[in-house]
Specification:
The structure is a single chain. By secondary structure, the chain is an all-alpha fold. The chain is built from 16 helices and two strands. α3 packs parallel to α5, α7 packs parallel to α9 and α8 packs antiparallel against α9.
Length: 411
């Protein structure tokens, strides 16, 4: 049921581990060369930069092909729009399967973009079939509207299972968020339904995962479990998942827009609102305990992020005034906690406590840090390299009578 054989996936995993070990000096060059030959596979791979370029390039080609087809053949009629979009979805998925089975592409960008296009074309095709040509703004109700997010979620889950793309599972979670809106108008019920769906998925992953602890699927289930833990938290945190989130937070983050944060409470009953407040404080310790017990960095990261979001949304939940210095104090607390944990681990025997260490054991950590720094530099270049400040027109240097070393002002 999976596009790649188990032996190929294990070989890829082993080669990645070999690169990390060789980069950190855990094995010699001779050992690396010998083990690399033993883990050879026929899958074609590329680096992350070319992978992104090929992904975007394939998306552009697929979108341009669809646009050209509509312009040439459907310029005067749109009655076959649904069928054309569904046909493009089938062709895109078939091309992704062909790229994997015949050309052995693995995380190459091309097959990933084709799989993404199949989901997008399917979603647009079903949407136009249900709502007609009024995309995104239709208010028609025909009883089958839930098929739109349901189809996107099902295909995304299949692509996650078939190809192992982590972001496909995230896309399925996003599609599920829209599903309860077609069943009930109660915002509280919608939150409960989404949380229940995520909880069912989490139970399934937790039940299946122990069988794959020592296989290549462990990483896949680790990321999936982390996403589900975090998804449940985001669903029950009403300050993050309420409908007027963007307007309320963007308006409150700037000077002059500071205010109370209880506007989300008007959408829900008081018992439900305060029950979620209790849950957002109980949920992060549960996630962290699970991650620490399994020594799973993705689950630990999900728990740590949930804990940070709980601290950030505590004031809005309680309706307290927020201040401009709150982010600064929060950053100081995070740095203090990080330094304390690092020094506590460093004081253990051989800098290890209960199987945890602050030392870098893999080159991936440095790679992620470099990528993060580069992303920050691209997103906000003026933070790292301030732009030159223009000189003031009011500043004039008067004529001095002498220059340096006794020279005149004309020197």
């Amino acid at each position: 049921m999976r596009a790649y054989s188990e032996s190929s996936q294990e070989a890829v995993r082993a080669r990645d581990l070999l690169k990390d070990w060789a980069g950190e000096g855990f094995i010699t060059a001779e050992q690396y060369a010998q083990m690399e030959q033993e883990t050879a596979c026929d899958l074609r791979r590329t680096n992350i930069f070319l992978r992104i370029v090929l992904f975007l390039f394939t998306l552009v080609i697929a979108g341009a092909a669809a646009g050209l087809f509509f312009t040439v053949f459907l310029s005067r009629s749109s009655e076959h729009t649904t069928g054309v979009f569904l046909a493009f979805a089938v062709f895109s998925y078939a091309a992704a399967e062909l790229a994997v089975s015949q050309f052995h592409l693995y995380r190459y960008g091309i097959e990933e973009a084709l799989a993404v296009c199949s989901v997008a074309f399917l979603w647009v095709g079903i949407y136009t079939g249900v709502f007609g040509s009024q995309l995104f703004f239709s208010t028609k109700t025909q009883g089958a509207e839930f098929l739109v997010p349901a189809a996107g979620a099902i295909l995304s889950l299949w692509i996650w299972h078939r190809f192992g793309f982590h972001y496909a599972f995230l896309a399925a979670m996003i599609f599920l968020v829209r599903l309860p809106g077609y069943w009930t108008s109660s915002h509280a019920a919608q939150h409960v339904i989404v949380a229940a769906l995520y909880l069912l998925g989490l139970i399934a992953v937790v039940a299946v995962r122990p069988r794959h602890r020592l296989t290549y699927l462990n990483t896949t289930y680790s990321v999936t479990e982390g996403l589900l833990w975090l998804g449940i938290y985001l669903t029950i945190n009403l300050q993050l998942s309420s409908l007027d989130l963007a307007g309320r937070w963007l308006g409150d983050l700037w000077p002059g827009g500071m205010g109370g944060g209880t506007s989300a409470g008007s959408e829900f009953s008081k018992p439900f609102y305060w029950a979620t407040f209790v849950l957002i404080w109980c949920w992060p310790p549960i996630v962290l305990a699970r991650g620490l017990r399994l020594k799973d960095r993705f689950v630990i990261a999900a728990g740590a992020l949930a804990a940070c979001l709980t601290l950030v949304t505590n004031k809005p939940y309680l309706g307290w005034q927020r201040h401009t210095w709150d982010p600064m104090l929060f950053g100081v607390v995070l740095m203090a906690v990080a330094l304390f944990i690092r020094r506590w681990l460093a004081r253990g025997p051989e800098k290890i406590r209960q199987g945890f260490t602050a030392r870098r054991l893999s080159g991936k950590d440095k790679l992620w840090m470099d990528a993060g720094i580069a992303s920050v530099g691209l997103a906000a270049p003026n933070i790292i390299t301030p732009s030159p400040q223009p000189g003031s027109a009011d500043v004039h240097f008067g004529g001095g009578s002498s220059g340096g070393g006794g020279a005149s002002s004309d020197f």
